[in-house]
TrEMBL record:
GO terms for cellular component: plasma membrane. The keyword Transmembrane applies. Keywords: Membrane, Transmembrane, Transmembrane helix. The keyword Acyltransferase does not apply. InterPro entries: DUF805. It comes from the Bacteria. The chain crosses the membrane at residues 24-48, 60-80, 92-114. This is Integral membrane protein.
């Protein structure tokens, strides 16, 4: 679990290569949990949701920090999805299937749970 999460952060901008199922799912689960804790903590400190209204300079600062963290984690997750698709011998362009409502999301989930295959992306 911790090794998968370390790999997530060390390969933040690595859009080539592969990532196995454990290297995909552990960071996704951990990031959802940490995101919920972070959002709850910021809302408790500010006394209102951080992304609804900006009343003061601390509200602006909290919003800026939260959005910066969100962007960095989103970028890392995007590269992780690319590597996971490569691991199941699919092109990274398959990520666009997620844009199709409902069916695309289900299909993308299936792509993420497929086992590792011998492929051209292996280092």
């Amino acid at each position: 679990m911790t090794s998968s999460y370390k790999k997530f952060w060390s390969n933040l901008l690595n859009f080539s290569g592969t990532s196995g199922r454990a290297d995909y799912w552990w960071p996704v689960i951990i990031n959802y949990i940490l995101g919920a804790i972070l959002a709850t903590g910021i809302q408790a400190l500010l006394g209102h949701p951080y992304n609804v209204h900006i009343y003061t300079l601390p509200d602006f600062g909290a919003n800026f920090v939260a959005n910066t963290i969100f962007f960095i984690v989103w970028l890392g997750t995007l590269s992780l999805k690319f590597r996971r698709l490569h691991d199941s011998n699919h092109s990274a362009w398959w990520i666009l299937i997620d844009l199709i409502p409902i069916i695309g999301t289900i299909w993308f989930f299936i792509l993420m749970i497929l086992p590792t295959k011998r492929n051209r992306y292996r280092n």
